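Objective 1b. Sequence-to-structure analysis of NADH-ubiquinone oxidoreductase chain 4L.
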Amino acid sequence: MMVMNMLVFIIMFIFGNIIFVSKHKHLLIVLLSLEFMVLSVYLFFLLFLSLINFDLYMLMVFLVFSVCEGVLGLSILVSMIRTHSNDYFQSFNLL
């Protein structure tokens, strides 16, 4: 059962990476794939820390940092939509 759970988390993380690498047209899809990878890492930590009977306070710290990462990504998305009126990376000139 433990091996099956580990396999599910690894597959979730790999699918998140595949979406992150292949769907780089819209910023929103990239942010959603990053949140999916954070969710898979969170579930892995939950399983691992409960397996070794460790305190789950580290999960709360991880959730705080992941929420901060999500809010930062959304603020970048909103500022990009306000300045360029869409979230395409092609219309966003970095120079």
